[in-house]
Amino acid sequence: MADAVTTMKITTTTRDRLRNHAATGESLEDVVVHALDVYEATQFWAQAEAWAAAETPAERAERKASEAEWDALMDGLR
């Protein structure tokens, strides 16, 4: 199923900025998709860091124990 074509109004300045970031052969959509991918990855890692910072020592110990159990289980499947 092909994506529907939708128009989006952006300023000339924004369009020009997108064009400046486009590599040879890239469309403006390619630039926007890449920018969204980077933005979403940044948001993901920021949230992961926040969760890590909020983890208590007891929660960390419990998580590490669980990870060790899963590692042992997966090693047993090899």
Q: Would you give an account of this structure?
A:
74% of the residues lie in helices and 0% in strands. The protein is an all-alpha fold and 78 residues long. The protein has one domain (12-77). The longest helix has 27 residues, at 28-54. The chain starts with 11 loop residues before the first helix and ends with a helix.
Looking at this protein, list some descriptive labels.
mainly alpha, 74% helix, 3 helices
Helix content: over 70%
> How many β-strand stretches?
0
Tally of distinct domains: 1
Low-confidence stretches: none
Biggest beta sheet summary? none
Shape estimate: elongated
* Radius of gyration based on Cα positions: 22 Å
Estimated share of beta-strand residues: under 5%
Separation of the first and last Cα atoms: 39 Å
Q: So how many helices? A: 3
Structural class: mainly alpha
What is the N-to-C order of secondary-structure elements (H for helix, E for strand)?
HHH
Quote the average pLDDT.
94
Give the helices and strands, then pairings:
Layout: H1 12-21, H2 28-54, H3 57-77
Question: Could you give a quick summary of the protein structure above?
Answer:
The protein has 78 residues and is mainly α.
